[in-house]
């Protein structure tokens, strides 16, 4: 039933021809929980990187970029996914923009992971030249490039690669405005599968270099064995984040391929909802990995909880590498 005329530039009409079933209610409820966990879980990550001087390094800035993308999933992507699932009637280009926005933040996560993998490779491959290569200007340039490419890839359908409709209003649905050839060839094959393959190759190279150095006694250099031991533990944690991302997103990407190459096959709605939920849930997984696998993250989380949330005094004796609100940069690489 169309809404009455309004002075608002965008009229929203809900499709009342479909009654929400139990699956829809479960899906929306689960999405709300995922959004809450993703936002509340990743805010402390960005907070920790900002406050802890020990985190003022290249890898942690890229992790903060990934956390920002995950926060955006909780704040923007999940609500938009729920809105799209309700099949509201809105202007076509507004619907298209909302769907493109969901792709933007997904792409930002992928490119942030790629930046982390490249950084880890350079760290173990060129340990002496690493500080010369990873200057502050280059770090911010890499972050800007990641988000610029994410916007370019995600907003590409706005420039014509879409299912154009002549009607001013449209029942909004992701597959009703976004073309599957864009999602399969451009978004998945070119900007998801290739970066994932590069990241896997980089981590294999990282572990090979570390294993070679450790088996050689770290070339006999003083402290080098400790350095590569720390890098090995950090690489394992970051590789786990990459693995969880791949496991979470590949099912939905594979379903998109099935829909494109075999349109006659109808994927059950619960499977599609499950794939979407799994992809969004990935944004809530990363903070758990940080807390469990990176000790300094766990320590900083507890300090933030104690000092800023529970409003208790800071501990009198605190290691210098864990000091909060200090302008000095402590190099823990």
Characteristics of this structure?
three-stranded antiparallel beta sheet; G protein-coupled adenosine receptor activity; G-protein coupled receptor; transducer; lipoprotein; disordered C terminus; 333 residues; mainly alpha; disordered N terminus; 3 strands; 70% helix
How would you describe the overall organization of this protein?
With 333 residues, the chain is mainly alpha-helical. Helices cover 70% and strands 3% of the residues. It has a 3-stranded antiparallel beta sheet. The protein starts with 12 loop residues before the first strand and ends in a 24-residue tail after the last helix. The relative contact order is 0.13. The N terminus and C terminus are likely disordered.
* Overall shape: globular
Portion in helices: 55-70%
| Main pleated-sheet profile | 3 strands, antiparallel
Strand/helix succession? EHHEHHHEHHHHH
Side by side, the strands of the main sheet go 1-2-3
Number of strands: 3
Report, as a whole number of angstroms, the end-to-end distance.
61 Å
Q: What's the mean pLDDT score?
A: 87
Number of H/I helices? 10
Category by helix and strand content: mainly alpha
Radius of gyration: 22 Å
Task: List the uncertain runs.
Answer: 1-9, 14-18, 326-333
Strand content: under 5%
